[in-house]
Design a protein that fits this description.
single chain, alpha+beta, FAD/NAD(P)-binding domain, D-Amino Acid Oxidase, Chain A, domain 2, 2 domains, 8-stranded mixed β-sheet, 12 helices, 30% strand, binds flavin-adenine dinucleotide
Length: 394
Amino acid sequence: MRTTVGIIGAGPAGLLLARLLHNAGIDSVVLESRDRAYVEQRQRAGILEQGTVDVLRAAGAGRRMDREGLRHDGIELRYARQRHRVDFPALTGGRSVMVYAQTEVCKDLIALQLKEGGPLLFEAEALAVENVGEEATAGPRVRFGHRGAEDVLECDYVVGCDGFWGVARKAIPAELTRVFERAYPFGWLGILADVPPSHDELVYARHERGFALLSMRSPSVSRLYLQVPEGTDAEAWSDDDIWAELERRFETADDWRLERGPITQKSVTSMRSYVHEPMRHGRLFLAGDAAHIVPPTGAKGLNLAVGDVVTFARALTYERETGSPELLDAYSETCLRRVWQAERFSHDMTTLLHRAPDATPFEDRLQLARLERIASSRAAETDLAEGYTGFPFG
Ligand SMILES: Cc1cc2nc3c(=O)[nH]c(=O)nc-3n(C[C@H](O)[C@H](O)[C@H](O)COP(=O)(O)OP(=O)(O)OC[C@H]3O[C@@H](n4cnc5c(N)ncnc54)[C@H](O)[C@@H]3O)c2cc1C
């Protein structure tokens, strides 16, 4: 097989990149190791920044999102049984976010790709990325396994959109790489429940027993999270224990109530910050989780993936139109500027709201002081609102 851009991975990064390239008249092939049903049902992110919403619409992938997504103009911070609403449009000149699950974004992009785009191969696992460095004498290629046989995809560029555990990053020599990493000593126990959300916007709760988040997937499905110790087994928590703990952490001084409902899914996610520099090696470009991970508190993972592939698609289009590799050469630097802003924001939100296992009373008081500062200073609140609704694409 031969194509211009070989894309490894059909998560949001790979699928959107294929769509953007198709719209620009550039051909690509997407290789995805899992089957279609798995990719379409994998529960993950659900908050789309204003910039991501704009990109999906412009790419022709926003129709169902505009019909079924829920526009949110703010979030609620909850601490010391008090409630404080952060009003995004008022603080950011009209920006908001959209609640529309990653599963739905992927379904929409897969349907478009299969109908109008280039090949998208499921159960096609990339095994190795070869000949991408400047020293290579032959063109780039991806070796992959498909239907029990090994095949080769030859291309001009390879984009590794294969997530944190993928193979693309391994093709960059270790001596050219710098990795920045932090693991957090807690995780999130996430549940899906068949119950209408108890609040019409997301609620981020700081509590002495740990963080809790109320979010939603639709008007009838709630998504809720509890901070739990690292290594927690989700099955060790009964449904009653989960609801009781959520009620404790969301408790307010007024008559607000958390509605319970049947839990249909529960799982534990670990929390990590990770950046791989550079994001490019010769003709290999990394995008999304393949290059960086953020803890989910800032809702940035999917949005960063979108920023990366928009940057790549623009750079390649520019190269095709002008012959200049200037933007491709600047890819890593351009993406990393935005990545580090998101890393900072996600880290700030995580330390603002979670209780570390070894937190001292002094640190507890500082956390409350930071929250009170946001609730009482327009400048501090604006900083949060700008970060949450998203940093500009490069
Ligand atoms: C469990 C979990 C929960 C999350 N929850 C949230 C959240 O609540 N909020 C939030 O903002 N973000 C969340 N995230 C982060 C967000 O989902 C990711 O940032 C986003 O999925 C990144 O998209 P991506 O396309 O870069 O990577 P991915 O979505 O990981 O997609 C990578 C794709 O590559 C495929 N692949 C891997 N290896 C190969 C290979 N060798 N060959 C071919 N294909 C391969 C994978 O099967 C996958 O389909 C969560 C992430 C995880 C893992």
